[in-house]
Structures are given as C-alpha cells and as structure tokens.
Amino acid sequence: MNASTRDDDRLLNMAEREMVAQTRPPIADALTKEELQALGKRLREARDRSRRIASQQQREMRGKSGPRGAAPARDNTGSEAKTAVLVEALKRVTAALRKLNRPAPAQVLRKALEAKQAAVPQHPSAGPTASKGHASDGQQAALRPRGPARGRARVKSQQGRPGQAGPVKLLAGSPHACYGRMPCG
User: Fold this and answer.
1) What is the pTM of this model?
2) In degrees rounded to 5, what are phi and psi of residue 177?
3) 31 and 39 Cβ atoms separated by less than 8 Å
4) What is the DSSP string of 111-153?
C-alpha cells in the first residue's frame, strides 16, 4: 500500500474505504456494469454528504451558522480532502463505465460505412442546362487587340502628329527610358 492510499484511507470511514478500494484497477476491472453503476450511486451519496459537511464547517468557521456540535468547527481541511478522495474514486468509476459502454472499433467502422453508403449526395450534378450559352449565338465579338499590343498600337498611331511628343528616346548615359511627354534629349 503506497503513501497516498494510506493517507486516503485515514480520511475515510470503513464503508467509504471499501467503496474507494473497489474503484482501484484490479478490482474495478472485474466488476460488471450493474455493480459499477451501484458503486457510483453510493459514491455520489458519500461525496454529497462530505460536501455538505465541509460547507457547514466552512459556514461555522466564518460565523455565518451556529455550531452543529458543542463548539464551532475550526478547520475543514479533512472534510475537503475526504471529498477530493471520493471525487477521484467517482471519476475512476465513470471512466470504467464509459470504457464498458464504448462500442468495439469494428462496430464503429461498420456503422460509419453504412451511413456513408446510405447518405444522399450533398452536391448533385447540374443536369441539363437551359441553353448552350454565348458560343452558340453565331455572333462573334469584334476582334480587338488585347494586352500589351493594344498599347503599342496606340503609341504608333499618335507618333508624328502635330502637338504630340515624339518617339521615346533614351537619356544620354542612362539605360533607362525617358517616359515624359516632352522629348528627351
């Protein structure tokens, strides 16, 4: 028996000690689902009782409530520690029940496959369209130059007109072109 188990047992009475001992791994693994459910119910009742006592002691310490015994409580750390031990035992029981209720991996996969096969597709095909679209009109858009060629054609048409800038020239001694409207040179 390790030190934490001895400390836990010191906080509990005999009935609570037996309940907590049943939640520890070698014994808890052998219990049936019904036995685990009954154990969980008893642990919840013991936890609730311990919480009630701890809160009553806390109220007595603050002076909000009269003493239940001959003198008011001076400390409730034992009751709070007892509640913590019972909560941990209840968590172990809940985990063991969850483990028993968990379906086998093969069942999960089989169920997922059945659901996938039975599902209606979310995005059905578009089916036949209303018309064949713009390409079948027989009318063709006027061919216009697109992209960079369009800009070059405009520059060439403006060259040589009166009042317009002349052709673009390179600056003397510079690899960069002069982009202004005034002739470079």
Assistant:
1) 0.56
2) -80, 155
3) yes
4) HHHHHHHHPPPSS----S-SS--GGGSS--PPP---THHHHHH
| Contact present, 43 and 21 (Cβ < 8 Å) | no
Q: What is the mean pLDDT of residues 11-29?
A: 91
Residue with tokens 């659901």: 115
Cα 129 to chain centroid distance, Å, stands at: 41
| Tokens coding 112 | 């997922």
Which of these ranges, 80-84, 98-102, 145-149, has the smallest mean pLDDT?
145-149
Which residues, at least 6 apart from 57, have a Cβ–Cβ distance to it below 8 Å? 73, 75, 76, 79
Task: Dig out the tokens for 21 from the structure.
Answer: 């001992």
Backbone angles phi and psi of 170, in degrees to 5: -80, 145
Percent of the chain with pLDDT over 90: 37
